[in-house]
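Supplementary notes for students who missed Thursday's class. We covered one full example, reproduced here. Read the sequence, then the structure, then the short commentary at the end.
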Amino acid sequence: MGEFDEYSNAKKDELASQTLTNYFNAYERLRGLIGGKRNVANIPQKELIEIIECSAFHKPTILNIAVVFKQFKNKPISKLLVYRDTLVSTAKAEQPKKNSQQIIHANTTYDQLINALRDANGTDYLLFYILINYGVRNADLIITALPSKDKKTKLNKTDNFIILSRNTAKYVRQDYKTAAKYGTQEHIIENQKFIKILKNVIADGNKNIFVNTMGNSIPANDFSKYIKSRFNKYIPNSNLTQSTIYKIILQHYEQLGDLKAMREFANTRGHTPTTQETEYSTIDYNE
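Structure (token representation):
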């Protein structure tokens, strides 16, 4: 049994399938850098650091995999943790400039986002409304639409739903990145255009709100392409992801000095205001 398969079998009941998929992708990158057939857990820390430092991949991601697999085999990780602290400090100092560059690369302003929402129809409107109002990640968009009459029989405690009542919709988020910390999030939507489109989606017999050309629910890993393509219809040459949309809107609130809106946006994404400042802002709050 291979090193990753051994880890996956041991952790399959503890970690979400998406987490294991992300780990596998990072593991494959690290193994490609290492070369040969050596297991990550058996490679000396100093050598791993040298390999990662020369990599063009996102260093914290592949370093984390090295830490995970050494911990799994009860191997020393102290040098790796010191290196991680160095990467974190460097990243924090560079993150505001990086965020600014990502917003520029997105080729989209806050006003263009709002105009796209205004002009959108069908499920595009539902997608834009959720992203712009709640700042959610890709996995949060895997949503089942339910009429309220089906709530008792079809609602569970693990998936994401939008439950349609006569004049409102309740967006219930249970499967998202930080759910273990923040629990179920519920958002009441009263926007009548949203309600009308959602009624049509349900009337057409669609279980999942966002589907591909085959009618199947879009996987989390495919939402980046989907979001970009849908916004490009309304904002030509835009280059948007859920992350850049969040940063554009946060920058708008910061420019207004609207601290209340910033806190609410952090809450709906499912992270702390501190994370919002250090990971998503274009302002260096440490200056």
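Commentary. The CA atoms of residues 170 and 246 lie 21 Å apart. The first helix runs from residue 3 to 11. If anything here is unclear, bring it to office hours.
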